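dumping this here so i dont lose it
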């Protein structure tokens, strides 16, 4: 794919040119972040998950990180098939990035598209619903932005070197995990981090002892380095790889079986990988508030090889699609934030540009034939300005997108669109805040599902329109401290309505699939959350409910619009023994039964209990231990985000039963 390197060249020259435009001078960053701390931020509702909470939960999937955010769901019984849904919109309608690198395209509709090691996450920004033109083209349901940790985040001013070793074990699927992270400052103005993680697991069990998941291993690494070429500018480079391999169900979204039918879904040897490289530049002169510049270029390659066992299944029609699939994307972003005043109005103006070029391909495991895929290229520019006058703010935004989709059979088509966004907010002096927002939604057609390339390259692009819509939301939030003494309270409620037109669906006979615009739909919903701390006690409650109304009999399994689910409650209670480093926590999730549109999904409730010890001083400082029981009552249930719900259907993928996890780590 040599044209990718040509596409990157002008952006790379721009970054290097900017980085050398100011006299270089040695400097070190003074930023200090606790190792393992994760900040999760949702629009208009900053929601922090600190290092203790994540460690107590012993998160090994993104579900464990995002589960407390109202409106966000993550389904899947293993890290190969976990899929994010936001307000009833699935991953194909979300903008997902890792360190600014877009996670584009669908490699196989039974797999998820988000591979990431949770131990590396520093921050997650979640736009629950689309509220800003800066979310980018394609954010029908919002955006999820993962940022990984760097050495600069982990070292304090005096430290030159540090590290962390970690080991954990989970009983349900006999999962062992061991990792090493090293970070340091070789010189006063450079920082380097290296990380490697190895995880092995066997098949797990549901609450009634049905086998689930996979029998394999996961190897992850991250290398990241930074160079402060002056006190005001920095260059960063990173290389990250996630490699999952082993025996997994052929259709990852369903459990394995040995049925003699078209539902045959055996365990087969598979490998699923993500490789991402980034080059970034930041320039923020302290004496000039007009310039806060960030530029980044990246390359991401996602590969799925489920054809290693193909010769064992020659002539088996249920598995005649085994292949090696690939999606490669290069892209870049350039943003600048300016802060200035015009009279009594304070401006926070952000201007940005985005580019990406993505293409896919498929190689048949039986014949070796390569099916050339589609490619998509985006150029996008936007501007938004938050104007503040006292307690009142208004944020208008405008974005222009130019996207070209190229098909090797039917040619190419350009899609152009101008999107608008507006948010109005007022912050009362008593801690109450009210806001209302409106955003245009636009998503040009993605490249075709890579698995379908050999028999679905006949879409007439002249008849395929872009998906469009509108997102409207109103909300209230309240925060207050010292209501009853040493305490903090935060509350939030939201009501939203999203309208979608030209919904794209993949449909037709198996060997002649096609994409078509098949109708419109609406999603309305309500979300609420409350967090309260009193002295050593912490508690939180979250609630969310979305109602999906699709016209013309649309099947949500074939569209960006997600699956109907009942209302969800999240409840958490924790206590910290001050001075001991010990904390304990109880978490529960309750999913209400869903009955509508001729479908019924049983409700369920699951609970976790865990304890954590992290000494802050003495000879054990640096040690961190966690012990937890997850799905305490061994509940037998299927996630409402799963495709199949019928208990008599062999393709219903039940969730993991009781699981006891223990983790020990040491930071030096």
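and the seq i came up w/
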């Amino acid at each position: 794919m040599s044209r990718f390197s040509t596409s990157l060249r002008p952006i790379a020259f721009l970054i290097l040119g900017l980085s050398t435009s100011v006299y270089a001078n040695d400097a070190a960053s003074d930023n200090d972040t606790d190792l393992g701390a994760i900040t999760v931020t949702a629009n208009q509702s900053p929601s922090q998950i600190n290092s203790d909470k994540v460690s107590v939960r012993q998160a090994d999937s993104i579900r464990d990180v995002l589960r407390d955010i109202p409106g966000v769901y993550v389904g899947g019984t293993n890290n190969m098939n976990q899929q994010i849904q936001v307000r009833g919109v699935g991953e194909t309608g979300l903008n997902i990035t890792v360190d600014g690198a877009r996670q584009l395209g669908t490699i196989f509709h039974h797999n998820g598209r988000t591979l990431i090691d949770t131990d590396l996450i520093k921050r997650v920004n979640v736009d629950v619903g689309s509220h800003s033109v800066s979310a980018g083209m394609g954010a029908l349901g919002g955006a999820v932005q993962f940022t990984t940790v760097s050495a600069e985040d982990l070292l304090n001013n005096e430290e030159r070197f540090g590290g962390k070793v970690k080991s954990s074990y989970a009983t349900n699927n006999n999962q062992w995990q061991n990792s090493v992270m090293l970070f340091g400052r070789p010189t006063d103005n450079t920082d380097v981090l290296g990380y490697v993680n190895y995880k092995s697991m066997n098949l797990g069990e549901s609450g009634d002892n049905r086998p689930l998941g996979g029998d394999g291993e996961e190897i992850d690494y991250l290398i990241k380095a930074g160079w402060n070429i002056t006190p005001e500018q920095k260059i960063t480079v990173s290389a990250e790889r996630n490699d999952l391999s082993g025996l997994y169900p052929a259709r990852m979204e369903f459990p394995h079986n040995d049925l003699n039918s078209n539902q045959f879904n055996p365990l087969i040897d598979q490998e699923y990988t993500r490789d991402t490289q980034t080059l970034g530049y930041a320039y923020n002169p302290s004496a000039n508030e007009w310039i806060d510049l960030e530029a980044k270029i990246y390359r991401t390659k996602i590969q799925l090889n489920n054809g290693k066992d193909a010769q064992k299944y020659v002539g088996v029609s249920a598995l005649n699609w085994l292949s090696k699939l690939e999606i490669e994307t290069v892209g870049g972003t350039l943003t600048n934030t300016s802060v200035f005043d015009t009279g009594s109005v304070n401006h926070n103006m952000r201007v940005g540009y985005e580019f990406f070029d993505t293409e896919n391909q498929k190689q048949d495991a039986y014949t070796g034939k390569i099916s050339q895929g589609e490619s998509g290229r985006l150029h996008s520019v936007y501007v938004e300005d938050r104007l503040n006058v006292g307690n009142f703010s208004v944020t208008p935004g405008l974005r222009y997108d130019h996207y070209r989709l190229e098909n090797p059979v039917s040619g190419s088509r350009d899609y152009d669109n101008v999107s608008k966004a507006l948010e109005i907010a007022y912050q009362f002096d008593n801690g109450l805040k009210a806001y209302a927002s409106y955003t245009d939604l636009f998503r040009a057609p993605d490249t075709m599902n890579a698995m379908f390339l050999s028999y679905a390259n006949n879409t007439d692009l002249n008849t395929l329109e872009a998906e469009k819509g509108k997102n409207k939301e109103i909300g209230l939030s309240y925060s207050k401290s010292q209501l009853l003494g040493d305490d903090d309270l935060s509350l939030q409620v939201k009501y939203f309505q999203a309208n979608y037109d030209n919904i794209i669906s993949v449909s037709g006979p198996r060997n002649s699939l096609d994409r078509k615009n098949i109708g419109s739909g609406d999603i309305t919903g309500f979300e609420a959350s409350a967090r309260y701390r009193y002295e050593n006690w912490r508690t939180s409650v979250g609630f969310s409910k979305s109602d999906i109304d699709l016209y013309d009999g649309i099947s949500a399994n074939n569209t960006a619009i997600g699956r109907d689910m009942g209302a969800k409650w999240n409840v958490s209670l924790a206590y910290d023994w001050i001075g001991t480093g010990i904390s304990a926590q109880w978490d529960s999730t309750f999913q209400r039964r869903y009955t509508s549109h001729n479908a019924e999904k049983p409700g369920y409730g699951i609970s976790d209990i865990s304890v954590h010890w992290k000494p802050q001083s003495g000879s054990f400082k640096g040690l961190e231990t966690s012990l937890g029981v997850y799905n305490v009552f061994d509940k037998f249930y299927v996630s409402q985000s799963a495709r199949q719900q019928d208990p008599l259907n062999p393709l219903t993928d039940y969730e993991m039963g009781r699981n006891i996890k223990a983790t020990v780590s040491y930071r030096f």
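The radius of gyration is 25 Å.
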